[in-house]
């Protein structure tokens, strides 16, 4: 009799897991508490996978041998509580995908900030070097679906803490931990140590043949290191000290040393600008070096990479004012990195759904670089409390209004930066929708 697998959540990862599980002979059932998008519903119907939306008989779920939980569903969800109470194993989609990856290798990248950019750059390095690879995970395409439909010898995966929460055997050949800052604490009982532990899970199954690339300059990572058993080859990255194995930047020169192979390049050759992107580029170069990619290929790829949409994306120059879309900045640390890389007087667009933000983290940078703050959210009290008296703070309630106001506050030679430090769900569907509306508003100036 085939194993009964229930999938909770019918988004990209849930549907991908359902397609792979069906292909591998599981008895699959998918349930989503909301409504499925038309495209996902069509995929399930085409594959003849039974599903339910909004309501379902409990026996359909509680008779499962195993449950795949979509990363967006928290532990406090009533169904998750019932499943746990019944002693049913819960795994993530990346765990299911890992079982069927065959001999393929995995580069898995996590961190509070910069993981999408680093994942995309690592993929670009591997692809430009002629490796047959796929970009999967939290960056937008289901790992399980990729394995079901178009398996590759190498997967470059962006992995969130939510995906790591429910792994059992998942083991990347190369694990990258970029940084750890307070984020998503609502999902971790407001205990920072729980979130740190989730991030370190990326290396928990690694062996002495694998690589663990981590940021040696990140105090949280180095202070937490002793709490975890790391069996893999440690390849740190740093801007503050020379490392024997890994990567470091000194005198504006990146030096990479992996398996006795050394290479160096000027940071001025990096396509990605800003100090935070030097860490991202360093991590990607070290990851590329573990794949035995030639030095000149890594250098070329680093120079030709184009930054991702909604991540410090230069939108347009409108009558001498530069507009930058950093809608992906959904926490204060991301906004700190964005401001740190700005070289022009800046009008900053902030606001949205606050995740317990501490705006004092960016106060110095605001004083140094920001001319005015334009709030774009339904509740802007915390932003006013933090910055009234520091700079001019103006409320708006749409992307159109925010862009128009920011433009009026700026002069030739200034920049307008959308880097909200908040989630987008008060006014927009998601950060992509927020970024898209921002760009449309800029284009209509």
UniProtKB/TrEMBL annotation:
Catalysed reaction equations from the record: UDP-N-acetyl-alpha-D-muramoyl-L-alanine + D-glutamate + ATP = UDP-N-acetyl-alpha-D-muramoyl-L-alanyl-D-glutamate + ADP + phosphate + H(+)
Gene Ontology CC terms, in alphabetical order: cytoplasm
Protein's UniProt keywords contain Iron: no
Keywords for this protein: ATP-binding, Cell cycle, Cell division, Cell shape, Cell wall biogenesis/degradation, Cytoplasm, Ligase, Nucleotide-binding, Peptidoglycan synthesis
UniProt GO BP: cell division; cell wall organization; peptidoglycan biosynthetic process; regulation of cell shape
Record-listed E.C. numbers: 6.3.2.9
Domain Mur ligase C-terminal: 310-422
PANTHER family named among the record's database cross-references: UDP-N-ACETYLMURAMOYLALANINE--D-GLUTAMATE LIGASE (PTHR43692)
Job description of the protein: Cell wall formation. Catalyzes the addition of glutamate to the nucleotide precursor UDP-N-acetylmuramoyl-L-alanine (UMA).
Protein name (Swiss-Prot/TrEMBL): UDP-N-acetylmuramoylalanine--D-glutamate ligase
Organism: Flavisolibacter tropicus
Lineage: Bacteria, Pseudomonadati, Bacteroidota, Chitinophagia, Chitinophagales
